[in-house]
């Protein structure tokens, strides 16, 4: 699907991810290199996301150190992760995180840090970036994925062509919730606005009752 969609007229790149921008779907306990070997329940929980190698280019998230994933990072190769700046600063302040290791989840095999990427705000536009790990999709298969396509034309113009390429690979594969990043951004702005309106209504009601 990625090869087919990337070759479409108007498409610049394509990737898959477990989460959409401005959202996160899963957290996991981690044991970073150098930390005491505490039980699983006492380890810090951080955001984790499975992606294809093209994700950073498609999302325009800069790589600050190390390397990106490749197709060679698969289920048979050594486990690798890319961390964000906040993650690197939290667990290895003042150190080079490249080559450091994490035990992710229940392990037992450690995953090696091969790259450091810029922070992104997956918890919402109003929240600071949180520590995050990215893993290759081939090393962390997910049952439900998002297809992300960067286009040189208005994005929704390519929706039918993208759907056709998915159907050509698997006619039974459902495709749902097609939207642009602008739609996601609008939704991110709408929730805080709704909360503020709701708080204002409750304040006015409380004042009237008083």
Report on the structure:
The protein has 210 residues and is α+β, with helices and mostly antiparallel strands. The protein is globular, with a radius of gyration of 20 Å. The longest helix is centred in the C-terminal third of the chain and has 29 residues. It has 5 helices and 9 strands; from the N terminus they run H-E-E-E-H-E-E-H-E-E-E-E-H-H. The N and C termini lie far apart (61 Å).
Portion in helices: 25-40%
Separation of termini? Answer: 61 Å
Strand content: 15-25%
Count helical runs.
Answer: 5
List keywords for this structure.
single chain, 210 residues, alpha+beta, six-stranded mixed β-barrel, 5 helices, 9 strands, globular
Give the arrangement of secondary structure elements.
Elements: H1 2-6, E1 11-17, E2 27-32, E3 45-51, H2 55-59, E4 63-66, E5 80-84, H3 85-91, E6 101-104, E7 110-117, E8 132-136, E9 146-151, H4 159-169, H5 181-209
Parallel strand pairs: 3-8, 5-7
Antiparallel strand pairs: 1-9, 2-3, 2-6, 4-7, 5-8, 6-7
Brief description of this entry?
The protein has 210 residues and is an alpha+beta fold. It contains 5 helices and 9 strands; from the N terminus they run αβββαββαββββαα. A hairpin with a 5-residue loop joins β6 and β7.
């Amino acid at each position: 699907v990625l090869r087919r969609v990337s070759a479409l007229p108007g498409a610049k790149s394509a990737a898959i991810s477990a989460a959409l921008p401005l959202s996160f779907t899963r957290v996991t306990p981690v044991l970073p290199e150098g930390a005491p070997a505490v039980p699983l329940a006492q380890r810090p929980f951080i955001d984790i996301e499975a992606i294809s190698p093209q994700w950073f280019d498609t999302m325009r998230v800069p790589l600050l150190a190390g390397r990106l994933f490749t197709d060679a990072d698969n289920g048979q190769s050594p486990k690798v992760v890319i961390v964000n700046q906040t993650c690197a600063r939290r667990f290895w302040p003042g150190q080079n995180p490249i080559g450091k290791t994490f035990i992710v989840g229940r392990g037992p095999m450690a995953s090696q840090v091969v790259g450091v990427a810029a922070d992104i705000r997956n918890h919402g536009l109003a929240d600071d970036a949180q520590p995050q790990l990215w893993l290759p999709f081939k090393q962390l298969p997910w049952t439900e994925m998002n297809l992300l396509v960067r286009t040189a034309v208005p994005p929704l113009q390519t929706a039918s062509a993208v759907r056709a390429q998915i159907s050509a690979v698997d006619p039974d594969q459902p495709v749902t919730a097609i939207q642009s990043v602008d739609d996601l951004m609008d939704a991110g702005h709408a929730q805080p606005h709704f909360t503020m309106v709701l708080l204002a209504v409750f304040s006015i009601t409380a004042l009237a009752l008083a």
